From TrEMBL:
This is Beta-methylarginine biosynthesis bifunctional aminotransferase. Residues 35-44 have a biased composition (Polar residues). Residues 48-365 form the Aminotransferase class I/classII large domain. The keyword Transferase applies.
């Protein structure tokens, strides 16, 4: 069966095919660097003239693995991680897929995940030959009993905190749940930390990097894309026990040889520069969303973390509404079709955009909803996929 473009990509294609029109594209949850920020750190060609003409080491450029270790010491309060626990990958999704393929080779045929989960992660589980199952996890100690009922065979537990799309964050009590899971020989936890710079809770719990170093049943994946606002670099990383790194490096070499050396050195510059302005930009977007809700009387609680709002629009057919908003209001939206299972009536709305665009976008969204309520949408708008 020929793969089909997602509804999101079809909507983007329509907007791109009509460049003369004023579109509000709200599909991405990669935060944008504020326009007032100093230029983003990027090395020049003169800084690494040989990078395009040779392979970087398969485990990662030594300057980048050193920068990542320093980053985890500072951001994740790690005391144990060193370069032997780090592997550079071609982005966060490559890291997830690489780990899942390795686990499948080790006999893991089942994966469980919270609901909803990004469809790319679900597809990676299936592509690795695993049966994927959604669970209503709460992020509390109660999850342990629920999960233990699933361990009838070697099982992968996928955890994403801060969570895409709900914005739930890691709680201190949950570290003990992760510790109990990681100690089991029949369980491996894949902890996706690609949003770990964006925990805005009052009692932030760092990503459990040292637990991944100490226990053989936990692997952490991360990415420059979200945490440093640089998705074009396609640079991610894995932190796990040294024995897993020793096995993953030849797998990465076999699959891709190495990650682009120039991109790795650009990532070094970005990490050295830091992401304070990027995080503050997301804070400003969140504040603008909250202020807009107060001004308009439309209640919208903020999640504890992440770079998006997970909005329940109260619309029965969210795909039809998204097509309606596209054609009549020039809004390009990400719906719950990007997640598994699909959650009725929801869209993902970015908070990592400038405050002015945030206010404009929320106003346009509410106008589209009001318009939707006064029209017979069932008869007046066709699905993008049927065009």
């Amino acid at each position: 069966m020929t793969p089909q473009l997602s509804a999101l990509q079809r909507r983007l294609n329509i907007a791109e095919s009509r460049p003369g029109e004023d579109w509000l594209v709200l599909v991405e949850n990669v935060p944008e660097w504020p326009s007032t920020a100093s230029p983003q750190a990027t090395t020049t060609h003169a800084d690494h003239p040989g990078a395009p003409f040779g392979y970087a080491p398969s485990q990662g450029h030594p300057r980048l693995t050193e920068a990542l270790v320093k980053r985890e010491h500072e951001v994740s309060a790690s005391r144990l991680v060193d370069e032997s626990h780090v592997l550079v990958t071609a982005g966060g999704m490559h890291a997830v897929g690489l780990v899942l393929r390795d686990l499948a080779a080790r006999g893991f045929r089942k994966a469980v995940h919270t609901t909803p989960v990004f469809c790319g992660v679900y597809d990676s589980m299936r592509a690795a030959g695993m049966r994927a199952k959604a669970l209503q996890l709460t992020g509390t100690a109660q999850d342990l009993a629920l999960l233990e009922g699933e361990f009838t065979e070697p099982t992968v537990v996928y955890v994403n905190l801060p969570h895409n799309p709900t914005g739930e964050v890691l709680r201190h009590e949950y570290v003990e749940v992760l510790r109990a899971l990681a100690a089991r020989p029949d369980v491996h936890v894949v902890y996706d930390a690609v949003y770990d710079s964006f925990d805005f809770g009052p009692d932030r719990c760092p990503t459990p990097v040292d637990l991944a170093v100490e226990e053989r049943g936990l692997t952490i994946v991360n990415s420059v894309s979200k945490n440093y606002g640089r998705p074009g670099d396609r640079v991610g990383w894995i932190v796990t026990a040294q024995e897993h790194i020793a096995r993953l490096v030849p797998r990465l070499e076999w699959e891709a040889v190495a990650v682009n050396g120039r991109a790795q050195l650009d990532a070094v510059a970005a990490i050295d520069r830091g992401n304070t302005e990027l995080v503050e930009g997301v804070r400003a977007g969140r504040a603008a969303a909250l202020d807009h809700a107060r001004t308009t009387g439309r209640a919208q609680p903020l999640p504890a973390g992440g770079t998006q709002l997970w909005l329940d629009l109260g619309v029965a057919d969210i795909e039809r509404f998204a097509d309606f908003a596209l054609e009549r209001h020039h809004l390009v939206l990400t719906t719950s079709a990007n997640y598994v299972p699909v959650v009725r009536g929801h869209i993902r709305f970015p908070t990592g955009i400038p405050a002015e665009r945030m206010r404009r976008a929320l106003t346009a969204l509410h106008e589209a909803l009001d318009d939707w309520c006064t029209h017979d949408a069932e008869g007046k708008v066709a699905h993008v996929g049927s065009r």
